[in-house]
Write a structure and sequence with these properties.
With 592 residues, the protein is of the alpha/beta class. Helix content is 46%, strand content 13%. The protein folds into 2 domains: 265 residues, Phosphohistidine domain (Glucose Oxidase, domain 1, 3-Layer(bba) Sandwich); 309 residues, Phosphoenolpyruvate-binding domains (TIM Barrel, Alpha-Beta Barrel). The strands form 2 sheets. Strands 1-8-7-3-4-5-6-2 form an 8-stranded mixed β-sheet. An 8-stranded parallel β-sheet has the order 15-14-13-12-11-10-9-16. Helix 12 links the parallel strand 9 and strand 10. The longest helix has 24 residues.
């Protein structure tokens, strides 16, 4: 009898194949105390395992084929950095020396400490970075277990599991989680899809699945327990459903959907370099969101006409207390600007704070977790509390503008007093560059609309800023007073809520009326369900994950903004706007 397992869809499409199960390396970790005379040898075991794993990851990175997604190299860098992070390795050594734990027990104990810290983070993306630490620990545990046989014995469980299966049947991977490095150990064609027990939309497993364009469902909590080795499995990456041992009728239906999905993907690929213009001649700008300079090439390949959001905070994370200096930041921003070949790059100033703390060499109680981190010292509030660091980042961004078109985006603006301080910092940063003889060009400055206050006072903000960009994820959260990370209320997080749509429409219409550029860079921009709604509101600039550009472009090419705008008032006044828009589009007729 078939079984259905539900999770989070993160990469669309259908995959059908036999299950390959990969067990967690943390199962049955040995727990024992070591004598005083064994502390140094135990630490040496940890050091040797760390060095062997680092060598393996470095070799994987060097051997990446040219066609490999750029995300994989970036994720390998993250794991290499974690291998040398004192919060992991240094603290694990302390468990060995202070508590006399064996190395495996010490690693597991420190992982639990770090896991609790990640679980307390407000930001979904950073919270899911816990998976990277878990994956590094798993590799270290394998290294401790197999290091006596040499680095060659450190082949991951994924590759071993795949090699156990012969024949021509397609395979799907089922695991608690999968490290990006493990994905590189098997050929791209071996696995047609992924299912993991843990993870979310921004987990690295999801990122890699999207970059490889492979159907995936994550967060399917019971998957590895319910699915047996060699079971036939259907992964519905659109609905987030995994079907185990499907009936022949269900299997035939999904095979048909799989063929249709492959045809649709091929059609979308042909749109990559087609200009995004609606049926009534409205040009629409489709931009990419990126985290690291290496992402710029992928954005271009996806057909983006620029970068609408470069999340600079990822240059600041996981550095063990040392933060990037002006030169390091400048080189990163410059590399992204050069890679875009003259297309615009919008760099958001660092968005960290109480819920996304930076490791610091000395404690500062201003940055302790508050009662509600989402309402604490974060984003521009944090930058203005660190004026020297803020000016350093501004100088680095300004210097990068000498190499192409650059815009600066300020996150979480809510007060006019902040606006004054922002522009004072910019004036001083430019003066410092002038005094040092550093080149820079004109840079437009924009504000993110992420809190209701910014949306309601949009006219005043537009008196100071050249453009605005709406961060819908936070705007929804703050408007509805919903913590997306809290499972008890997460179902109330509703992008279609009338209040959210009213604020969004107000922001877009006022910016358009003043002739100022406005874009949406939150998840709504990359969700095809909202494309017509945003077009009807007058939005002509969308910024999203590069993998979503082709599908959004298809919706744009099929849209008539005159027809859509004729339905707008009725939809905004409806109790259920999403349903109202769907019915309007079904019954609507384009004007003759």
């Amino acid at each position: 009898m078939s079984i259905q397992v539900f999770g989070t869809p993160v990469s669309r499409g259908v995959a059908i194949g036999r299950a390959v199960l990969v067990a967690s390396s943390r199962v049955d970790v040995a727990h024992y105390f070591v004598g005083a005379d064994r502390i140094e040898p135990e630490i040496e075991r940890l050091r040797n395992a760390r060095n062997a794993v680092a060598a393996e990851l470095a070799a994987l990175k060097n051997e990446l084929p040219p066609e490999a997604p750029h995300e994989l190299a970036a994720l390998l860098d993250v794991h290499l950095m974690l291998l040398h992070d004192e919060s992991l390795i240094g603290a694990t050594k302390a468990w060995i020396s202070d508590r006399h734990y064996n190395a495996e027990w010490a690693l597991s104990a420190q992982l639990e400490v770090l896991a609790r810290q990640f679980d307390d983070m407000e930001d979904a993306y950073l919270r899911e970075r816990k998976a990277d630490v878990e994956q590094v620990v798993e590799r270290l545990l394998r290294g401790l277990r197999l290091s006596a046989a040499g680095p060659a014995a450190l082949g991951p469980a994924v590759a071993q599991a795949a090699s156990d299966f012969g024949g021509e049947d397609p395979l799907v991977l089922v695991a608690n989680d999968v490290a990006p490095a493990d994905m590189l150990q098997f050929k791209r064609s071996i696995f047609t899809g992924f299912v993991t027990d843990v993870g979310g939309r921004t987990s690295h497993t999801a990122i890699v699945a999207r970059s490889l364009d492979i159907p995936a469902v994550v967060g399917a909590r019971e998957a590895s327990r319910l699915i047996r080795q060699d079971d036939w499995v259907v992964i519905d990456g659109d609905a987030g459903v995994v079907i185990v041992d499907p009936s022949p009728i269900v299997l035939d239906e999904y095979r048909f959907r799989q063929r249709q999905s492959e045809l649709e993907r091929a059609r979308l690929d042909r749109l990559r370099h087609t200009p995004a213009v609606t049926l009534d001649g409205q040009a629409v700008e489709l931009l990419a969101n990126i985290e690291l300079p290496g992402d710029a090439a992928g954005a271009l390949a996806a057909g983006a006409v620029g970068v609408g959001l470069f999340r600079s905070e990822f240059l600041f994370m996981n550095r063990g207390g040392s933060l990037p200096g002006e030169e390091e930041q400048f080189e990163a921003y410059r590399d992204a600007v050069v890679a875009l070949q003259g297309l615009p790059v919008t760099i958001r100033t660092v968005d960290v704070g109480a819920d996304k703390p930076l490791e610091r060499s000395a404690p500062d109680h201003r940055y302790d977790h508050g009662l509600n981190p989402a309402l604490g010292l974060r984003a521009i509030r944090w930058s203005l509390a660190e004026p020297s660091m803020f000016r350093q980042q501004l100088r680095a961004i300004l210097r990068a503008s000498a190499y192409g078109k650059v815009r600066i985006l300020i996150p979480m603006v809510a007060h006019l007093s902040e606006v004054r301080m922002i522009f004072e910092a910019l004036v001083r940063a430019r003066q410092q560059l002038d005094d040092a003889g550093r080149a820079y060009s004109h840079v437009e400055v924009g504000a993110m609309v992420e809190v209701p206050a910014a949306a309601l006072m949009i006219d005043r903000l537009l008196q100071h800023f050249d453009f605005v960009s709406v961060g819908t994820n936070d705007l929804i959260q703050y408007t509805l007073a919903i913590d997306r990370a809290d499972e008890a209320v997460a179902h109330l997080y509703d992008p279609w809520h009338p209040a959210v749509l009213q604020l969004l429409h107000h922001t877009i219409s006022r910016a358009n009326a003043r002739g100022r550029a406005v874009s949406v860079c939150g998840e709504m921009a990359g969700d095809a369900a909202f494309t017509e709604m945003l077009l009807a509101m007058g939005l002509r600039s969308f910024s999203m994950h590069p993998a979503r550009i082709a599908s959004i472009k298809q919706r744009v090419l099929r849209a008539d903004t005159r027809l859509l705008s004729s339905h707008l008032t009725r939809v905004l006044e409806a109790d259920h706007p999403g349903e109202a828009l769907r019915l309007a589009l079904q019954g609507g007729r384009a004007p003759q």
